[in-house]
């Protein structure tokens, strides 16, 4: 991901779009102008995002452009077909946009109508939209009908869900997906399955790596769980790791990486071990938190800090996934002191980075600005770190 001047003129937030199977089907980017009066170059923005989000058959990118001028220019242009655009209902109902919407639909573009139109839309316009996006507080419908009893014309995605009960209620109402996920709260009763690979094996291996035990002893632990060994080697060979030599075994991994780098991938395995389908969005968020926090400090050139930040982000949702407090969890799992301070005490040098990550996840312009200023990071630095993290996460999927 290269630097683009346009990334210094916007503020980015992101959230996942999650279907009934708890699968992330798309990533939504909310894009704010740094200043409301700033005229933004839609072509430059789309080019920058296309570099980060190639059409590779993976999840699509949904753009929520919080600038009417920017959205108008994007509608008139030719966004990549793996990009979807959110169109506010007031713009969808404006006849001046009808031709642009029809042209995008004819090209195969995906469009979402956001909110409720003040009046009935022409069928030709309504047909351009895949789904509507309706806020949880706005949606008082039951079953498959609208408040006035007329059938739904398009399926709907529920936004504004902040609690586990609202997720369940949204799907009960008939939502095809929800935007965002209450990742700090467990959702549903889970699948009843045990974690695989065995969490105890991962924790034991992490402790042995922390003590830098001989390779033979580490391999002995892995022999009890071949699935873990396979997943570990697969992660290390992923494009996100960037190795030029393919790793063929756990012993080879240690020889190539060393103990310190191996810790990060064990952390990733621990945070993605649950088979509870309600934890899938939580694991999705944890991986992206770790990569994002690491990218935020990459320019400092402190490899140890970057590794610790990665672990901090990945472990930041471990309490939700494991159903235990951090104080209990981190008695058995070795973590650096700064990570312990951030997760258990809610303090220390890594806490402000966690605040920034959460602000970006909540797509809150004010909170993102405040957190970035606290860390003395520019909009361009934060945006570039986020996009690089999202790129790396997609390479792991």
Task: Please give a structural write-up.
The protein has 397 residues and is α/β, with parallel strands linked by helices. Strands 1-2-3-4-5-6-7-8 form an eight-stranded mixed barrel, surrounded by seven helices. Mean pLDDT is 85; it is low at 142-151 and 188-197. The protein is built from 19 helices and eight strands. α7 (199-210) runs antiparallel to α11 (259-271). The chain starts with 9 loop residues before the first strand and ends with a helix. The chain has two domains: 5-179, Alpha-Beta Barrel (TIM Barrel), CATH 3.20.20; 199-396, Hypothetical protein af1432. It is elongated and about 70 Å long.
Q: Domains counted in the coordinates: how many? A: 2
Which class of the largest domain in CATH terms? Mainly Alpha
Distance between the termini: 18 Å
User: Looking at CATH, which topology of the largest domain would you report?
Assistant: Hypothetical protein af1432
Strand content: 5-15%
- The string of secondary-structure elements, in order, is EEHEHEHHEHEEHEHHHHHHHHHHHHH
Query: What is the CA-based Rg, rounded?
Result: 22 Å
Helix segment tally: 19
Strand order of the largest sheet: 1-2-3-4-5-6-7-8
Shape: elongated
Which regions contain 5 or more consecutive residues with pLDDT less than 50?
A: 142-151, 188-197
CATH structural architecture of the largest domain: Orthogonal Bundle
Q: Describe the main β-sheet briefly.
A: 8 strands, mixed, barrel
Structural class, by secondary structure, is alpha/beta
Overall average residue pLDDT: 85
Q: What is the count of β-strands? A: 8
- Report the helical percentage: 40-55%
């Amino acid at each position: 991901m290269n630097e683009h001047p346009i990334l210094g003129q916007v503020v980015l937030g992101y959230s996942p779009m999650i279907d009934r199977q708890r699968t992330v089907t798309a990533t939504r980017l909310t894009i704010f102008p740094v200043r409301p009066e700033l005229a933004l170059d839609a072509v430059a923005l789309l080019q920058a995002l296309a570099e980060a989000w190639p059409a590779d058959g993976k999840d699509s990118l949904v753009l929520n452009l919080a600038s009417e001028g920017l959205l108008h220019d994007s509608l008139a242009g030719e966004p990549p077909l793996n990009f979807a655009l959110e169109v506010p209902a007031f713009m969808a109902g404006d006849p001046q946009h009808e031709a642009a919407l029809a042209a995008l639909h004819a090209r195969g573009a995906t469009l979402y109508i956001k909110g409720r139109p003040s009046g009935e839309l022409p069928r030709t316009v309504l047909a351009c939209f895949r789904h509507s996006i309706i806020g949880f507080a706005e949606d008082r419908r039951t079953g498959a009908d609208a408040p006035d009893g007329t059938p739904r014309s398009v399926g709907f995605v529920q936004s504004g869900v902040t609690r586990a009960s609202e997720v369940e209620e949204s799907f009960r109402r008939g939502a095809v997906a929800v935007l965002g996920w209450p990742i700090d709260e467990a959702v549903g009763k889970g699948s009843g399955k045990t974690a695989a690979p065995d969490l105890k094996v991962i924790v034991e291996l992490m402790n042995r790596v922390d003590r830098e035990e001989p390779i033979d002893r580490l391999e002995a632990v892995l022999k009890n769980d071949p699935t873990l060994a396979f997943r570990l080697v697969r992660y290390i060979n992923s494009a996100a790791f960037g190795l030029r030599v393919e790793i063929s075994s756990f012993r080879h991994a240690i020889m190539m990486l060393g103990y310190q780098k191996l810790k990060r991938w064990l952390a990733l395995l621990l945070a993605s071990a649950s088979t509870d389908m309600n934890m899938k969005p939580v694991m999705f968020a944890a991986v992206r938190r770790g990569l994002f926090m690491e990218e935020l400090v990459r320019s400092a050139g402190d490899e140890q800090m970057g590794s610790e930040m990665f672990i901090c982000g990945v472990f930041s949702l471990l309490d939700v996934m494991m159903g235990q407090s951090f104080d209990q969890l981190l008695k058995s799992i070795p973590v650096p002191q700064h990570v312990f301070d951030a997760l258990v005490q809610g303090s220390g040098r890594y806490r402000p980075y966690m605040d920034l990550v959460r602000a970006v996840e909540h797509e809150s312009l004010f909170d993102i600005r405040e957190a970035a200023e606290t860390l003395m990071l520019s909009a361009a630095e934060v945006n570039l770190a986020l996009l690089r993290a999202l790129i790396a996460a997609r390479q792991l999927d």
